[in-house]
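Subject: Interface between my chains keeps coming out wrong

I've been trying for a while to get a sensible model of this assembly. When I model each chain on its own everything looks fine, but I need the whole thing in one frame so I can look at the contacts. Pasting all components below, labels as-is. Any help appreciated, I'm running out of ideas.
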Amino acid sequence: MGVIRLRPILLNLAVAAFAILTTIPLLWMVSVSLMPGGEANRFPPPFLPSHVTFEHYRDLLFGRWVEGAHFDYRIIPALVNSLVLASLATVISLCLTIPAGYAFAKLHFRGRARALQLLLAAAVIPAQVAMLPQFLLLQKLGLVNTYLGAMLPQLAGIYATLYTRQSVLGIPDEMLDAARIDGASEWQIFVRVVVPLLRPVIVTLGLFAFLASWGDFLWPLIILTDQMSYTLPVALAAISREHAQDGELMMAGAVVTTLPVLLIFLALQRYYISGLLGGGVKG
Amino acid sequence: MHGVGAKLVAAGKGWQDRAMGAADQEHATGCTRRTLLGGGTAAATLAACGARHDPARVTMWAMSTEGENAPLLLPAFERTTGIGVDLQSLPWTAAHEKMLTAYAGNTLPDLMMVSNAWVPEFAAVGAIVPVPPALLGDQFPGIAEQVRVGQHHYGLPWVIGAHVQFYLTAPVRAAGHDRPPADWAGWVAMARRLKARDPDNWPILMMLNWPEHLLSFAVQLGQPLLREGGRFGNFRSDAFRTALGFYKSLFDQGLAPRLLSTEIEDPLTAFARGTFTLYPGQPYMVGDLDRRPGEIRRDQWATAPMPGPRGAPPLGLVGGSSLAVTRNARDPARAWALARYLCTPATQMRFHAYTGDLPSRPSAWGPLTDPVSQTFATQIAHPGAEPVVAEWERIKTEMQLVAEHMVRGSFTVDAAAAEMDRRTDRLLEKRRWMLDRGTST
Amino acid sequence: MTRTERAGLVFATPVLALTIAIFVVPTVAALALSVTDFDIYALADLANLRFIGVGNYANLLGNPLFWRALANTAIFAGLGVPAAIGASLAAALLLHSATVRWKPLWRVLLFAPYVTTLVATAVVWRYLLNTRYGLINRGLDALGIAPVDWLGNPHASIPAIVIFIVWKIFGYNMVIFTAALASVSADLDEAARLDGAGRWLRFRHVTLPAIGPTLLLAAILSVSGFLQIFTEPYVMTQGGPAQSTVTVLYFMFDEGFRWWSLGSASAVSLVLFALILCLTVLQLRVGRRYEWV
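Reply #2:
Try treating it as a single job with all components included. I did that and got this:
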């Protein structure tokens, strides 16, 4: 018979077209970052570089020496700041929210229900309402322009706590009681029984925390006043105000800012997607 | 640090063991309470770190062109005095807010470059300190007035400039003039001729989000922009409305495009290509143009004072940037040493060679006899008066926002002037209250 | 106190303490700030502070830029939420179709924009939307459409940014909807098909009710997200042209961190809070009517 079904072909083409259109801006970003200077401002705009050059990455990352003076966009310090800040924020917030989530699920203490309501209520507050007083508070504490100041709003981790609680609720009480009967302390139960079971949750939450910290813009823009403390997004935004005419340089900056998280995502997609879908603890 | 490392290693081992199906939970979770506590404290301590500045070095902030070229001046200073300098460059559009934020957060640098328009504001809130009188000699009188608040001067003038027009010589000559006419009517007529010859391009480039263009017309007429000692707006005066009407007519006649600075990434390339013939601007553009010999040569452009209502020499928009030591300065003496060095005539002349910026010291002007510098000199000799109030930066911004709306058709000239006054009066309300209380100047 | 109680308190207290210190106290402080005229003068000397009651709120109501910011934000949400949810749903439906191959690859590609850093992609799109040199206009040119002055025309600026935002975020809900679609009862769908219901009817009466709750949650989160747009106008247009992309949050940032009128800015932030709360409650009400909650 050989009837060619049209619909599947069309659907596949549609998805492919959709996906390619979606990826074009990112491909163009990489392509322009490799173009020689000034090429992107030609009409009609080119799609591929005439010849590949890494000069913008070199200028961006390593600066230039002119007449004994060093000109530096300070991207490498920004990269280090982003890495350190995101890592610290992730580790600290995990250490705070995982135990808390467990406590809210399995450890009954007086006022627990009330405390949970407080968390839920606080979760509704948009971050910006608290930002101005937070700044004044951190100024009094001398934490303006510090790593701690930059990560503090993220550390409270209300959603992470609630998410952990949801996951922990799936752990059977008998498992915990059995460990208690065996004579384990609460801490040991947490560390030896609960945490291993929560491993996928921990990876997912850690991933979310890292990505959120890396991409955070408004708060670091406010709290980091010194160019040496800037994170990558803040540094990139500052450069884009001054060097708008250097399209190739800006694309190189965009690639440097985006590439690390893109790679991390590709490596840990499974956890990220499962985290989006609500996760949970299996068995 | 050891705690964090141990914790991470232990966690890593834990995953490894589980993957191999090891049942030894003891091994997998080496994070005892103590390790966790130690790690946590170490992490928190690290987190409290900010950017570490060597206290012996002077921190300095400068903007845009000056910020990017000042590093060329520093090696000599560091060699002769042994004082290291950490320079940061800020974009102009974000500088004012970054400085105020740093003031609010107590993280100001030792020395900073401030626009003269901001000096009253920063002085009013105590962000910057008075200049030692010994450093204050050899200034242009108009400039020195801009940085004086009460009895003291709060900034040491560093670079000065004036608002003049840069023009392409060839099209202007083709339109029948050696240089642009000095009166408004003649200037507009020439622009119309330019437009007729080249309808696809624009004679004049004036960014809709820069207040300087409107202000340069406004100060020419000699009437103050605020009245009653800076208590109320004076935008409804005849003088200002005349200037406003003139400004609007340039856009309405199609002589200038309705563009914001964000929409035109490279205005100098456009100027070089002839897209615009008249480009009012500041001295730093001289340096920028000189850096593109491939696109435009020195003999292809020239400068002239802005046209006046009835001819030359009109009052002009004159200003500049000064160096100020902040209240957070750890060692003011070193900071002033750097400021003094940057303002010596020799250093200012070197800076002029790099950037096109003009020296603030009259004694440095000897060698500057070329026509371009002389144009600026003429304008600087006739400064128009700008208000010296703390809110001026914000008032200028609001004024230009209303002007942009007017140019796009949302207001008539009179309605725009009334709206500017309304917003200005509201912004000045606190100042009025403080003046009445006697706590401000 | 039993052992579990003690452990529970120790485990939970840090998060609670941080929440109170970082969110609850500052929110109350914001309320306090909003009834004063705290500004740069007050920062210098607290004696310059005045209590002005509802003065800030009254000034906001009389400030045309505030209304403009509200209108812009409403347009952003009004255009953006349907566009974003529509795009996500379309992508999810495509991916859900049994006849599509290489799904994991397409899913990663379609999701990639969501993971990229917002500031970086905003910079990239600023160049893409350039009137003369941007790829978007070049693409339109290939289709025979005249170039659009995306970021220079006050009427095109919001659609331009909405296109960017939809590109950036549609992957998120696409994944959520894909999972929701997978949970739609295949039997019900098959029964409807046997009864002769066309594709559209099946979608309306079988699929849509099943994914209703997911749609509602996505809508609530989307609306909340669109009401808090800041980075895109900051990086791409600085609020222009003609303040057509000033959003409520951008306005708050200007008031608070550019001009340091903290009293006024706090008032704006509380208004924003109230707005988000009202809209969320409204959407929940609507959802309850359709029994999606």
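Reply #3:
Confirming on my end. The CA atoms of residues 218 and 243 of chain B lie 5 Å apart.
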